[in-house]
Amino acid sequence: MSEDVLKKVISHAKEYGFIFQSSEIYDGLSATYDYGQNGIALKNNIKEYWWKSMVQLHENIVGIDAAIFMHPTTWKASGHVDAFNDPLIDNKDSKKRYRADVLVEDYCAKIETKIDKEVEKAAKRFGDSFDKEMFLKTNPRVLEYQKEIETALSRLAKSLTDNDLEDVKKLIEELGIADPISGSRNWTDVRQFNLMFGTKLGSTADTATDLYLRPETAQGIFVNFLNVQRTGRMKIPFGIAQIGKAFRNEIVARQFIFRMREFEQMELQFFVAPNTEMEFYEKWKQTRLQWHLNLGMGEENYRFHDHEKLAHYANAAADIEFNFPFGFKELEGIHSRTDFDLKQHQEFSGKKLQYFDSERNESYIPYVVETSIGLDRMFLALLSKGLKEEQLPDGTERTVLKITPALAPVKAAILPLIKKDGLPEIAEKIFDDLKLDFLVEYDEKDSIGKRYRRHDAIGTPFCITIDHDTLADDSVTIRERDSMEQKRVKITEIHSIMSKEVSMTSLLKNLL
Ligand code: GAP
Question: Which of 221, 256, 381, 433 could form a disulfide with 269 if both were Cys (CB 3.0 to 4.6 A apart)?
Answer without folding.
Answer: 221
